[in-house]
């Protein structure tokens, strides 16, 4: 009797083990487990309004600020995407580049930016643990008369060069990549035409994609009222213009500003995604969120950000975006990235 | 005695079978690409899948060492890492103890603040920048944003100050010492004291 009972118990235990094993397999296989539950936001990276191209001094062995910033990013085990925003497109003395965000609005050529970003990449490589992966989005914006097709081609050429540099032996491609990035904001412009031309020219030269980390002012936050077809949202931009720059272009991917604590930025991008689903070939896939908590957390800036409701934390911004796009089955998706932009560098 | 061992053998066999089934299946499940691009249009899917393949290839290769001196020649040529600042083509005019730079570039979203120009004063390692413009949310509300920057790297102090009355966007048109004159499009002028960070009434 004891033996029978022991066998019976053992059989039950054996069955239980098999069931547990199969459940483990099913859990590992099932994508719905990640989609259905409210996910934990990804750890945010630190993006920057760039005011430096300090690549160090090989004579003295000084590593330079760019190396230090990359190293900092690596030490923080940052994964995902970091935007290094170099400011306003410009063409000076036969060279393309940007006016950057230093106090004196210095012009820096694409060659200079390329050298600087290489130092950032080196810093990240040296200081990051194995297993992380970072896209460095080298950013500009759509402000001013320097937004030209020539500038876009030069920018894309710089990104191509940087990726060749990463993959040249010894390859750092296991942990790094570079992409283009543009802060496309209708409010910076008087017409969408230069920005559309810029992204087209970028796509014509680039081997890689670009991220649009801009905004969508005047875009609807809910199904009603919808803007009339062709209606201007701001500065002559229609909803179709925003859609094209951020997604309609084959190399465009949105990483929008989700600053507002009331959720309206997230709602605008859900509506933009829905516009793609209803009026185009499919919903836009929002890649992640950009917030500005680092800037808003400066003591003297807290009140301003609170008054205008701009101080989303990275987790809040990403969660608002996730909730918004997953509130409608037509736009359901899971954004990958979260980044927060800082003034410091 | 043999029969007494039978349940243990059964359990052992079951555990072995469970492990043999679970390990390869879980490994297979986890080795599938972590990204699902089925919702993407073909032209974007091609880009992303090519990138994933390139990363996977790089990750399969032996990792280069961390922190070698300069394996790729990443260090700039002597003197090339710190280029001489190039002011470019922007109009720069001396004004008071600083200068006015005619650029709308400012580190803010246009939904937050839109600059017209800026006034800059350099004092050793510290610089004060006053961006003049308008609220992104209220086109009638002029505003200045003050940033105090140390070593060109860190914003250590600042202020955000609305014009006392609403006349739209403002620009810096002159300065005396650290007292700035700002003008709105309708011609209304304001005086901004950089030291106290307040709009003041001038006599």
Brief characterization of the structure:
Chain A is α/β, with parallel strands linked by helices and 345 residues long.
Query: Given the C-alpha coordinates, what overall shape of chain A results?
Result: globular
Q: What's the N-to-C terminus distance of chain B?
A: 111 Å
Q: Estimate the strand proportion of chain B.
A: 25-35%
User: Which CATH top level class of chain A fits?
Assistant: Alpha Beta
* Structural class based on helices, strands and sheet pairing of chain B: alpha+beta
Biggest sheet statistics of chain A = 8 strands, parallel
Give me the side-by-side strand order of the main sheet of chain A: 9-8-7-6-2-1-11-10
The helical percent of chain A reads 40-55%
Unreliable parts of chain B: 23-33
State Rg of chain B. Answer: 32 Å
CATH structural fold name of chain A: TIM Barrel
Helix content of chain B: 10-25%
> How confident overall, as mean pLDDT of chain B?
86
How confident is the prediction overall: mean pLDDT of chain A? 91
Query: What's the Cα radius of gyration of chain A?
Result: 23 Å
Number of domains of chain A: 1
Poorly predicted segments of chain A:
22-35
CATH architecture field of chain A:
Alpha-Beta Barrel
Structural class of chain A: alpha/beta
Q: What overall form of chain B do the CA principal axes indicate?
A: elongated
Q: Secondary-structure element order of chain A, as H and E?
A: HHEHEEEEHEHEHEHEHEHHHE
């Amino acid at each position: 009797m004891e033996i029978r009972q022991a066998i019976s118990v053992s059989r039950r235990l054996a069955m239980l083990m098999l069931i547990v094993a199969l459940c483990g397999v099913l859990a590992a296989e099932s994508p719905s487990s990640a989609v259905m539950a409210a996910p934990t936001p990804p750890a945010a990276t630190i993006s920057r309004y760039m005011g430096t191209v300090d690549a160090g001094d090989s004579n003295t062995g000084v590593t330079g600020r760019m190396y230090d910033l990359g190293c900092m990013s690596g030490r923080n085990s940052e994964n995902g995407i970091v935007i290094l925003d170099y400011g306003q497109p410009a063409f000076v003395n036969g060279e393309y580049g940007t006016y950057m965000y230093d106090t004196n609005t210095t012009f820096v050529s694409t060659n200079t930016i390329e050298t600087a970003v290489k130092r950032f990449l080196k810093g990240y490589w040296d200081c990051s643990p194995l297993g992380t992966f970072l896209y460095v989005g080298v950013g500009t914006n759509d402000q001013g008369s320097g937004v030209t097709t020539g500038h876009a081609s030069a920018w894309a050429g710089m990104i191509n060069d940087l990726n060749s540099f990463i993959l040249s032996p010894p390859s750092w491609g296991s942990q790094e990549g570079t992409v283009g990035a543009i802060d496309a904001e209708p409010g910076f412009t008087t017409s969408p035409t230069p920005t559309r031309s810029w992204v087209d020219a970028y796509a014509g030269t680039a081997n890689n994609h670009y991220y649009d980390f801009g905004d969508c002012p005047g875009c609807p936050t809910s199904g009603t009222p919808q803007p009339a077809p062709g209606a201007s949202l701001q500065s002559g931009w229609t909803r179709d213009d925003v859609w094209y720059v951020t997604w309609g272009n084959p190399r465009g991917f949105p990483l929008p500003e989700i600053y507002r604590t009331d959720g309206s930025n997230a709602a605008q991008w859900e509506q933009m995604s829905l516009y793609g689903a209803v009026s185009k070939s499919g919903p836009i896939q929002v890649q992640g969120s950009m917030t500005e908590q680092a800037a808003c957390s400066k003591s003297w800036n807290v009140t301003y950000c609170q008054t205008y409701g701009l101080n989303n934390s990275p987790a809040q911004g990403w969660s608002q975006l996730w909730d918004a796009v997953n509130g409608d089955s037509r736009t359901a998706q899971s954004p990958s990235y979260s980044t927060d932009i800082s003034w410091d560098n | 005695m043999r029969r007494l061992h039978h349940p243990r053998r059964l359990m052992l066999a079951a555990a072995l079978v469970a492990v043999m089934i679970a390990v390869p299946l879980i490994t297979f499940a986890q080795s599938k690409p972590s990204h699902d691009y089925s919702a993407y249009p073909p032209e974007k899917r091609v880009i992303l899948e090519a990138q994933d393949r390139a990363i996977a290839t790089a990750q399969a290769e032996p990792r280069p060492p961390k922190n070698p001196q300069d394996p790729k020649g990443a260090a700039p040529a002597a003197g090339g890492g710190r280029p001489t600042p190039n002011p470019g083509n922007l109009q720069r005019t001396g004004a008071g103890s600083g200068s006015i730079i005619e650029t709308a570039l400012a580190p803010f979203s246009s939904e937050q603040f839109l600059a017209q120009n800026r006034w800059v004063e350099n004092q050793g390692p510290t610089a004060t920048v006053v961006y003049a413009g308008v609220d992104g949310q209220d086109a009638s509300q002029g505003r200045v944003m003050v940033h105090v920057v140390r070593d060109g790297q860190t914003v250590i102090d600042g202020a955000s100050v609305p014009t006392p009355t609403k006349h739209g966007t403002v620009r810096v048109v002159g300065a005396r010492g650290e007292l700035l004159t700002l003008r709105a499009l309708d011609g209304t002028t304001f005086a901004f004291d950089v030291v106290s960070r307040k709009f003041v009434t001038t006599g």
